[in-house]
Amino acid sequence: MFTLASIAVMLAGAFQCVPVDADMPASVAPASSGYRSSSASLPPVTSPTASKGQPIWHQSLEDGWNASRKTGLPMVIFITSENCVYCQAMEKRTWCNDSIAGQLVGRFIPIHLKKGRNDKVLSRIQLKMYPTTLLATPEGKVVQHRDGFQPPENVLSFLNQRIGGRTPSR
Fold first, then answer.
1. Alpha helix (H) ranges present in the chain?
2. 3-state DSSP call for residue 113?
3. Which of 58, 131, 159, 166 could form a disulfide with 87 if both were Cys (CB 3.0 to 4.6 A apart)?
4. Which residues pair with 58 in a beta bridge?
5. What's this model's pTM, rounded to 2 decimal places?
6. 53: helix, coil or strand?
7. What DSSP letter does each residue of 10-36 carry, written as one string?
8. pLDDT (tens digit per residue) in 69-97
9. Is residue 80 within 8 Å of 91, Cβ to Cβ?
């Protein structure tokens, strides 16, 4: 069960899905649409996994892992740092893409960890760079990882990787 305090913590660092091509490096600016309107943001929390077709990004590994164990769904862990232009570009271009959001809902527990907010848990993870994206089982085993900016097409392929001998399905 969620309390107002836990909802505030979950939404405190949630990124908003807005088209901001001008803020992205030219090398990662989108060539096509697939973005929500500038007034869109992450939906209010009504369940541990999703609401109205939008993924709910957990803001702590503990909360996300608990939801993963409870539902049996694998975790997608997106790790960022402050002032990382490629992290911001991936938040806006990749994770806010309608196809990616649709793949996350009901198939994965998305977790957004951020340097500065999640330092204790991040101190136990050896990172080569930001952003880093991990795919992990409900048991906590990391089965896939990607370093650096990943466009939507790469993340779609990544999300369809086999996990523990099976492909996540709806």
1. 4-12, 61-71, 85-89, 98-104, 119-122, 152-159
2. strand
3. 131
4. 111
5. 0.72
6. coil
7. HHHTPPP----GGGS-GGG--SS----
8. 999 999 999 999 999 999 999 999 999 99
9. yes
Structure tokens at 106: 């009901």
Q: Which of 21-25, 142-146, 151-155 has the least mean pLDDT?
A: 21-25
DSSP state string for 69-80: HHHTPPEEEEEE
Work out the angle between the directed axes of helices 61-71 and 4-12 (0-180°, nearest 10): 110
Q: For residue 81, what are the CA distances in angstroms to 11, 115, 116, 153, 160?
A: 17, 5, 7, 23, 26
Q: What contacts 24+ positions apart, CB below 8 Å, involve 18-26? A: 18/92, 18/96, 19/92, 20/92, 23/88, 23/89, 23/92, 24/85, 24/88, 24/89, 24/92, 24/93, 25/85, 25/86, 25/89
Q: Hey, what CATH topology would domain 63-164 get? A: Glutaredoxin (3.40.30)
For residue 10 the two structure tokens come to 């979950």
How close are the terminal C-alpha atoms of the chain, in Å? 24
Neighbours of 122 (CB within 10 A): 18
Please give the structure tokens belonging to residue 157: 């392929």
CB half-sphere exposure, 91, CA atoms < 13 A:
28
